[in-house]
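Aim 2 progress update. The chain analyzed this quarter is reproduced below.
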Amino acid sequence: MAYLKASDTSIDFPLYHTENRSLKKALLGQVSSRFGVDKKSRPVVQALRDVSFSLKTGDRLGLVGSNGSGKTTLLRTLSGIYQPTAGTLSMEGKLISLLDPQQGMNMELTGYENIRLRSYYLGLSKSESQMFEEDVVGFTELNEFLDIPVRNYSSGMIVRLAFGMATAFSPEILLMDEWILAGDAAFMSKAKKRVEGMVQHADILVLASHSPSILAEWTNRLIWLDGGRIVADGPAMEVFEAYLPSQDFQQLLKTRS
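Predicted structure tokens:
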């Protein structure tokens, strides 16, 4: 049975004294109240602080909070991109994160070569690799463009290939940021149906979103983050009533139940 657990998980980002450090520029001004120092007295931004929760099969968790509250940082920590500064993470089950589908793509390789490279990284058998390739080829509809290097693709074509590879398998644990469903209307309509299938088949979902309709449709529990800390954690309707009082949202949740 799949599970995902965070215990007092904290993330600190170091602040460098060099003025052109991109991380420092990105963080200064919007998280000044979260400055601190690490064990060696070096300045850090406290991106997440003492985050704890436990998820089991059937849980559909939504993450809400203003920009900079820690939603994406938490997703990246759960996916293994960031390592906790303190606390622990534990999980059981195959995990896929739809945060940056283009991660791991090689622009110098052809579309077909990228597909085969991804199947190798996934550790697929020969028969699984063949099914993986057929699925991605059919979904992307890139046809003859799969024979040329990805560096020659348009941005939309790159998104198609990356998204197709990232969503070819339904995981037990699915991590997702809602921006993944933004883009070319024709393609994203098709992409949304594919993601909806993944959501339905996943044992556990963790979704960061600002959309009441998506949260109402896909989640049964919400965590409200503010300043990198959990403000509230509970049933979706109760938490959203506290986070953003909205009769429209409450009615939407009631119609779903």
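The beta strands are 3-14, 35-37, 43-56, 60-64, 86-92, 95-98, 173-177, 204-208, 221-226, 229-235. The longest helix spans residues 185-201. These observations will guide the mutagenesis experiments scheduled for the next reporting period.
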